[in-house]
Design a protein that fits this description.
The chain is mainly α. It is built from four helices and no strands.
């Protein structure tokens, strides 16, 4: 089943829920979304040197050592 069909199926179920059950559903969806974000963060933090590279990138941004997307598009 593709994502469009899955979303349609979810919408059909949501339309049938009582207000009380909608609250449960929204809490569960919020939990899943938050968990997904946490999983992605944990995966990044496992990459050797990621924290240091990210800190350096933030410093470069503060110092204006950046290239705009338009400049990158012209270059590549």
């Amino acid at each position: 089943m593709n994502t469009v069909k899955i979303r349609q199926q979810i919408q059909e179920y949501v339309d049938k829920l009582s207000p009380e059950r909608l609250l449960v559903a929204v809490d569960f969806l919020a939990y899943l979304a938050d968990r997904q974000d946490n999983d992605a963060t944990e995966e990044l933090l496992k990459i050797q040197g990621f924290k240091e590279d990210f800190a350096k990138a933030k410093e470069n941004v503060k110092e204006g050592k950046v290239i705009s997307v338009e400049q990158l598009k012209r270059k590549y």
